[in-house]
Amino acid sequence: MNGEESFVEDCSVFVEIDPSGRYGRYDEILGKGASKTVYRAFDEYEGIEVAWNQVKLRNFTRNPEELEKFFREIHLLKTLNHQNIMKFYTSWVDTNNLSINFVTELFTSGTLRQ
């Protein structure tokens, strides 16, 4: 099996791919809250696992101020660069699925609730 065949096999397990084609989302849920679901994903360029965060826009239909607050938080995350803060890679709005997606660094050692 050559590297190209391996890549094709790996891509077949993705249930969703970001608009750039760089990140592929698996069906495995890492965490779920009131408004956000976090999935395991893979960065094809760096060869590392990442966290794919998905927020359904229907969660904000009754409160546009909350949606604006959420977008401000996303913008803030994009600007932060510190060794003790989770890395933010990209974000986009998926109009077909009515969701906001963003990809961050993946931490597998547990949750902050422990």
Describe this structure in words.
Helix content is 23%, strand content 38%. The protein has 114 residues and is α+β, with helices and mostly antiparallel strands. The chain has one domain (3-105): Phosphorylase Kinase, domain 1 (2-Layer Sandwich). The chain has a six-stranded antiparallel β-sheet, with helices on one face. The longest helix is centred in the middle third of the chain and has 16 residues, at 64-79. The radius of gyration is 15 Å and the shape is globular. Residues 1-9 have low confidence and may be disordered.
List keywords for this structure.
114 residues; alpha+beta; Phosphorylase Kinase, domain 1
Question: How many structurally independent domains?
Answer: 1
- Helix proportion range: 10-25%
Q: Which strand order spans the largest sheet, edge to edge or round the barrel?
A: 1-2-3-4-6-5
Class by alpha and beta content: alpha+beta
CATH fold topology: Phosphorylase Kinase, domain 1
Protein name: non-specific serine/threonine protein kinase
Catalytic activity: L-threonyl-[protein] + ATP = O-phospho-L-threonyl-[protein] + ADP + H(+); L-seryl-[protein] + ATP = O-phospho-L-seryl-[protein] + ADP + H(+)
GO molecular function: ATP binding; protein serine/threonine kinase activity
Keywords: ATP-binding, Kinase, Nucleotide-binding, Serine/threonine-protein kinase, Transferase
